[in-house]
Design brief:
about 180 residues, alpha/beta, Uracil-DNA Glycosylase, subunit E, five-stranded mixed beta sheet, 6 helices, globular
Length: about 180
């Protein structure tokens, strides 16, 4: 896996029902077609686990392992689940980039890598080059592709697309070296 996408938590109507993060959630309607467009997936996404859609050199996970009340995890839940995220990152030796969907995911990724949040603040569209646990990674930031963020205009499909395009370009450039 070259790219790990870290979301917030499983959605009640998505991963908890299908086993695939964002499948059946509104955010999946933005995330998965964008991944396909930039070469991180193949097939047609139809919000079903048996739709034939496959990720390529990409994995999707969450900062928190269970669906939290009010769809927003507490800091304690994020801390408790961080050992799982740290283990997942450690188990990906080919990992080159992490895309954090929102500030909570950004903070969880930094914590999992043993880095201070204050050294690398969250900013939509930022791509940070970080050194952690004996390797250099890209940490890219995007607002979460949730219904709320898209409906309010905090995030647009083109803004999200630009982040994935920048990641794809940086990974391709690194591979060519």
């Amino acid at each position: 896996m070259r790219l790990l996408i870290v979301g917030l938590a499983p959605g009640l109507k998505g991963a908890n029902r299908t086993g695939r993060p964002f499948t059946g959630d509104y955010a999946g309607e933005t995330l998965y077609p964008a991944l396909r467009k930039h070469g991180f997936a193949a097939g047609r996404y139809e919000a079903r686990i048996d739709d034939g859609f496959k990720l390529k050199a990409c994995r999707v996970t969450n900062a928190v392992r269970c669906a939290p009340p009010a769809n927003k995890p507490t800091p304690a839940e994020a801390r408790t689940c961080n050992t799982f995220l740290a283990a997942e990152i450690a188990a990906l030796p080919e990992l080159a980039a992490i895309l954090a969907l929102g500030a909570i995911a950004h903070g969880a990724a930094l914590q999992a890598l043993g880095l201070a949040k204050s050294a690398t603040p969250f900013k939509h569209g930022a791509i940070h080059e970080i050194a952690a646990k004996g390797r250099t990674l890209l940490l890219a930031d995007s607002y979460h592709c949730s219904r709320y963020n898209l409906n309010t205009g905090r995030l647009t499909a083109s803004m999200f697309d630009a982040v994935l395009a920048a990641i794809a370009k940086r990974l391709e450039k690194a591979r060519a070296r």
